[in-house]
Amino acid sequence: MLPERFRLTIIHPCVGRRVGMRDYIRTWQMEPLPAAALAALAPSDADVRFYDDRLEAIPFDEPTDLVALSVETYTAKRAYQIATEYRRRGVPVVMGGYHATLCPDEVQQHCESMVLGEAEAAFPRLVDDFRNGRLQSSYRGTGASGASVRPDRSVYRGKDYLPIHLVEFARGCKFKCEFCAVQSFHDATHRPRDLDTVLGEVDEVRRSGRMIFFIDDNMTCNLEAAKEFMRALVPMKVRWVSQTAIHVAHDEEALALMKRSGCQGVLVGLESLDPTTLKTMNKGFNLMRGGASKALENFRRAGLRVYGTFIFGYDQDTPQSIDDTVRFAREQALFIAAFNHITPFPGTPLYERLRTEGRLLYDAWWLDSRYRYNDIPFRPGRMETRELADACVKARRDFYSWPSILQRSAHRVNYSEPRMLFNFFLINYMHQRDVSGRNGLPLGDLNWSGTLLPCDRSLAHAQSGS
Fold first, then answer.
1. Domain tally, the chain
2. Could you tell me if residue 100 is inside a domain?
3. Residue 333 in domain
4. Whole-model pTM above 0.90?
5. Which residues contact 319 (CB under 8 A, 6 or more apart)?
6. Could you list the residue range(s) of the whole structural domain that residue 39 is in?
7. Fewer CB within 10 A of the terminal residue: the chain, N end or C end?
8. CATH code of the domain in which 33 resides
9. What does the pLDDT look like over 287-325, one tens digit per residue?
10. Cβ(124)–Cβ(66) under 8 Å?
11. How many CB atoms lie within 10 A of CB 423?
């Protein structure tokens, strides 16, 4: 018999931990929006508890009726460890998120039920079915169901997250980049959320001096919708950053609206300087109207700082081309930058291509005990795996060296505002400290011992509805 008040525990799993690891990687400690979204979807009579595996120990022995985890590929192994701990105690587990949708056959082995696709329409049905003893093995979410749901951010209280608030304006992206799991999950669609709901969230989280991060994978995918949103932001006087494709750099109205509405900078997927590589990625649009150099010039002229991301490991990449990319990033005065190897996420065209070509080194690298964060899980075309991994680390070390930091700080776009200049040095210093901190990080917690338990769906029925 369940207690009168339904108890729901939401867990955000970490990527992994080394033995004896105490402090977690600080740049990875942002508010997890999926947890707040699930909390908002819980029934009104629920007693909701939330634990962030990156920040605190999970109290596995605390009484609860149901556990919910949102799973990403990098956190899958740790999520399965957490699920095993609860299952040992007779508590059923439900899972959702990108990895559940892209690898349902795998995920269903570790949970009593799962949500495929977006959770807003499916999760309340799942909870209701669980409470009435008719839990199904999977639930399919429907698109656009999250348009008016506002996350319950009260679950963040008392947790030491980075001082930046996360809000979602739209979901998905219409571009079909080969390596991107977003286009696989959302089927290359892009849907803005209800504007009044988003503006209400902005009003809820805005604080003097605090930044808002619109976490959209491509905020300006629908330029007209983005412009309407930015016009509404102007009188709210907020400071924000987001992610965008390079095409927005060639729309003067959009750039002006970004600046007027409080945009401080954008993350742009520059990915590569090589035209052949960009076309292989299905990102030939990055070459439009003068390519990256012209786009970055336009961003700077508008007073917008750029977080540029680059990925290496395509067949044209060499140690020299990677060095050239770092030089370009420094010369372009990027506020910050990421230099990572391509990652073949399951369900993406990249994963399928490498699998077909026989170049994957693991059937499922995210579960293999040999794999460590920043290892290369495939055979590159013109570099050895170790050579590519070392080149990525060297790129980060060079870019976040003090000579590079000082060189980039001297560009007007980075020093024009004292507050952002302070943030420039702080954020670059944090990344400098993290250059090697992630390397070799295991997937899953090495302090955990035991064997993953296969799911027992009869457990969910035994524990629910009676």
1. 1
2. yes
3. no
4. yes
5. 383, 387, 391
6. 7-141+457-463
7. N
8. 3.40.50.280
9. 998 999 999 999 999 999 999 999 999 999 999 999 999
10. no
11. 17
